[in-house]
Design brief:
- The chain is an alpha+beta fold.
- It has 10 helices and 9 strands.
- It is about 50% helix and about 15% strand.
- It has a 4-stranded antiparallel sheet with strand order 5-4-7-6, with helices on both faces. A 3-stranded antiparallel sheet has the order 2-1-9. A two-stranded antiparallel sheet has the order 3-8.
- The radius of gyration is 28 Å and the shape is elongated.
Amino acid sequence: MKKISLLLAVVLFLFSGLGLVQASEAVVIVNGEEVSTEEYEKRLERLKYHVANIMEIDFSTPEGQEWLRVIETRVIEELIWETIFMQEIEEYGLEVSSEETEEAFAEYKQEYPSQEEFDQFLEESGFTLEEYRELIQTNLLIEKLLEMQVGEFSVTEEELKDYYENNINQYSSSEQVAARHLLYDSEERAQEVLEAIEAGDDFADYMEDGEELGYFGRGMMVPEFEEAAFGMEVGEIKGPVETHFGFHIIYVYDREEETVSSFEEVRDQIEEDLYEEHYERQVNAYFQKLYEESEVEFVEEGVEN
């Protein structure tokens, strides 16, 4: 069963048309269970800190205010879903042992090369060590719940082949060339440089006037440049090529032809792709069922959608 994280997999819904009750210490009431304003504000500040530091968002700007509304919505939705999930988990009596939590914690921590980098992650994310362990435990409980609710899935060889034929673009790569170019305002200067290179000068000696483009496919450059580049042989230098940018001298130094992976090469990947599609559909259907069966009341103005 594919593992799934609450922070990555919860489907966000728009909670429009839900009633408001009189203000209290709760920010939202889910199936009669109050979610505290304190918890909402704590998570809101954590996410604001994360966005402000990682994405360099200033919440005092108009753009920052837009981000703040998105963050507020995200936090309230996360709290609603977490509450619904935990109610389901309690109903089924699911538990996670301290050994399971510590094992998962160790796996997550291995993603960071050093203790200093892990500590930096906690600081930037706004988590204490204990809060991070609690989050892991919550995720493990939700994984157990989903494993119980989402059925197993298998496909026939014929279904795998049909999927391959209908989605072959996913398993192919288009033709690409790798190039450098020099760019000049005047055709005379471009022609002069081209003649010097053809006479023995090194293309690299003129790169202060040019750019390393690397690999690119069709449709990524202006038409005149693309037509010239894709018509050249590896090692060929051509110019001047005129575009609305100016006059180019193009050097193509590598080429990758279009490739299509065989069914045998990608069979396992297709099986995984189909499983993920099935799993996502099943999980989303379960999410929708839970929400439709839940009673959600917003308490404080400004947090409902």
